[in-house]
Amino acid sequence: MASPAPAPPAAAATHSPPPRIGLAGLATMGQNLALNIAEKGFPISVYNRTAAKVDSTLVRARDEGALPVLGHRDPRGFVLSLARPRTVVLLVQAGPAVDATIDALTPYLEPGDAIVDGGNEWYQNTERRIEEAAARGILYLGMGVSGGEEGARNGPSLMPGGHVDAYNNIRDILEKAAAQTEDGACVTFVGPGGAGNFVKMVHNGIEYGDMQLIAEAYDVLRRVGGLSNSEIADVFDEWNKGELESFLVEITADIFTVADPLDGSGGALVDKILDKTGMKGTGKWTVQQAAELAVAAPTIAASLDGRYLSGLKDERVAAAGVLEEEGMPAGLLEKINVDKKVLVDRVRQALYASKICSYAQGMNLIRAKSVEKGWNLNLAELARIWKESLQGRWCSDRMRGDGL
Ligand code: ATR
């Protein structure tokens, strides 16, 4: 196999015109967002603590169309390469890494420059950093970035909150980089303080709920309906043409069509995946916030419980043995006689109704926080900017129609 082409050298710290925006933190999300911004015609300086990721970003920038990405290996050269007022986007691990990166960059920033943290940060950390930055005259945004790797590269949903001037400095860039819909770009200024991070946290909680609902719909189709993987793929594909149309339903349909490459007989990969999952934390924060604010969020809470239980694989296997001994063999549900067509339609309706309930729970939580903090959040705008990343067309249209 040919060895990969050598990395182009880090560009000199000049560019004509100099970039208005820089991005620090070139792991998966950062690298893809930087390339997206460059592709939209905005030159961008990039920096990472470990230089190898600067090199790999430059290789991609070259290979994906000679994109205007300028690499820097030191924080000073990185910051000083930017036109004033400077905007530095951070995409490093939430928590202490954000503080460490801010500490490395701020000596070179000047009053009027801005920091934009694009990670899944706890909203109170952002509120603390807004104050710390303000003491030096620096503007600050906490910006939720949704859509994963693919979204970051081709069009994420962006949820910036904090200092509105920092947003206005780069509004044109964000509007081009975000996902595009017939209702506009999937970005809006969410609100002050940690509002952007809070909204992104609830967005993730809603996504946990969506995934749990889809998993339960699958379980009923499989166990009660006895549908095969290819039948289930067709069902989700069909659902994706109607009111359930969404990214998660679309990829669920695809999952059932993938064969296990290690299985010579062509068995489905989905049946080989261990039914055990973990989580990163935003779902847990969502449920904690719901409890704090006395807002019912049963779907999101149940999805968290589902994940905790899925993690107890050994205990579940042991419990199945006990149930079997007590006369409740596995596969009991499979013995129920059902009309597949009727079942599929009922599950579709149940999934739709549950989704509406789940989104209402998330929106209620955001509304409660908005009242508590005086954020004055616009829920209809949030539904609009989630259109591509999360729920698909149906929910946005419905929520806006309901005047949320
Ligand atoms: P992703 O989920 O996108 O893959 P992540 O794990 O959230 O990424 O964050 C990884 C990024 O945080 C990397 O850019 C990493 O820098 P290195 O490549 O040098 O490891 C950065 N990061 C983590 N801890 C950091 C710290 N203490 N200071 C600066 N950057 C840090």
Which CATH architecture of the largest domain is right?
Orthogonal Bundle
- How much beta, percentage-wise? 5-15%
Shape: globular
Helical fraction equals 40-55%
- Give the domain tally: 2
Oligomer: single chain
Q: What is the gyration radius calculated from CA atoms?
A: 23 Å
Largest sheet: number of strands, sense, barrel closure: 7 strands, mixed
CATH class of the largest domain: Mainly Alpha
Q: Which distinct ligands sit in these coordinates?
A: 2'-monophosphoadenosine-5'-diphosphate
According to CATH, the homologous superfamily of the largest domain is: N-(1-d-carboxylethyl)-l-norvaline Dehydrogenase, domain 2
The CATH topology of the largest domain comes to: N-(1-d-carboxylethyl)-l-norvaline Dehydrogenase, domain 2
- Are there runs of 5+ residues with pLDDT below 50, and where? 393-404
Q: What is the average per-residue confidence, as pLDDT, rounded to a whole number?
A: 92
Order of helices and strands: EHEHEHEHEHEHEHEEHHHHHHHHHH
Number of E strands? 9
Structural class: alpha/beta
Strand order of the largest sheet: 3-2-1-4-5-6-7
N- to C-terminal separation? 56 Å
Protein name: 6-phosphogluconate dehydrogenase, decarboxylating
EC number: 1.1.1.44
Family: Belongs to the 6-phosphogluconate dehydrogenase family.
GO molecular function: NADP binding; phosphogluconate 2-dehydrogenase activity; phosphogluconate dehydrogenase (decarboxylating) activity
